[in-house]
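Encode chain A's predicted structure.
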Amino acid sequence: MRASDPPFDDTVFLDDMSGKHNTAGEFEPDTEPIVDSVNSNHVPDAKTVTGASRSCSSTRAYATVAVMLFVNLLNYMDRYTIAGVLSDILKYYKISDSEGGLLQTSFIISYMLLSPLFGYLGDRYNRKVLMTFGIVFWAGITLASSFIPSSMFGLFLAMRALVGLGEASYSTIAPTIIADLFVKDQRTRMLALFYFAIPVGSGMGYIAGTYFAQAFGNWQYALRLTPGLGIIAAVLIMLVVHEPERGESEGGTKIETTTVKLDLIYLARNKSFVLTTIGFTCVAFVTGALAFWAPVFMLDAIASQGKPADKGQVSLIFGLITCIAGFLGVGIGSEVGRRLKKKYPNADPLVCAFGLISCSPFLFLAAVFANKQTELTWVLIFVGEVLLCLNWALVTDVLLYVVIPTRRSTAEAVQILTSHLFGDAGSPYLMGVVADQVRGVRPKTPNNEFQSLQKALYMTVFVAVLGGAGFLATSLYVKEDRARADSIIRAGLESEEDVQDGRSHATGQRSAIA
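Encoded structure for chain A:
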């Protein structure tokens, strides 16, 4: 691609148009919109206005993705820095495993509760301003939380919860900007690049958090690394990131926003969105539990064998595994999905299902062999994480092509709310509760700690298989739902009042959307 080429596909094929030739031999398209009929009683979804602009060069579009990748790295670094120094935090505040699990749970709860607000705002207002505000707020709260004394764990917990506002403002909006800059294979590649930040940033969080704390002799310094970088990220967003017109990359149509009620009705009737959200909720449950407790679990596993357990070394190994496995998983999943999709339109959810179902035996065996074969356990964890990460970019890609542009931030918010509410908002805490109950009144020896966490980790195996079933079900509907979304983008629709009535009125058009 040349630097002057647009980052979107704006090719129009005459075969896609209806009309007739006039006496001069010129082709005159019909003035009525072309919408394929899928069902006679389907409900229309939004109003469209022709003439959406395309105002972004390739260089600016790629620079926008680079900045958002940088911010996403910081988000996940900060989220998992706590896990890298969790054992120090437990000792500093003198709290139990279940209370330690609340640190992640409180963050996720605020993140998921605030996501719908930013989803609503992201579909209606300037997205650059919203992201900048959230990142500056997150940086300030993270820095402030590092100064809370040992007698005020409740305040520390509350401050960690407030960090969720920053991530909610970013995670619901950033993918929709990428969707408005790129389409088709380019969008898939850009989303894969963007979501490399999840495993890489998480791994960097473990490593940077542990070694920063060791370098300064104080775990609080682990929380003082990312805020300064966050301010730099906020400046880059305002100066570099392009704010595209919603739906800009998909060409020629601007869809007006509708009420929240109508947006939610649309999403609830979108089978691919609902089923993908179920599958992704299981992904969030598994990754949340593993990311928070796996380093502690491996420390206990090594110590239970009578070997010296070096926290820095365990965090380094787990961080590197997370980075490399995630990098490979996201890249392999995106590329396999992209290639298979050319022949099989439902390839994306099938790849996601394969990854989740096939990772479960590796997770099970890792828990079984952890206190017997440490090296083998690391290999099993690595393979399991590669398979688990196949879905990260594909899930968002599916959401973006089965949901119309003016509802994508709302869809991201609903998916975030649901997946975290029933996924990683509770899984770290639930793991801690189960571990405490299994251990009971037995002393906190490395062997007792290992056995209790081992039993708790078995939950992730079952949940992974359940998530795979959700993605398999998605594959049955994704082709049809994508065609419907494309029809809305390319054609005029019936009025919003029809949606409110819950039925389709005759307007001389055929509705292609439920």
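DSSP finds 20 helices and four strands in the chain.
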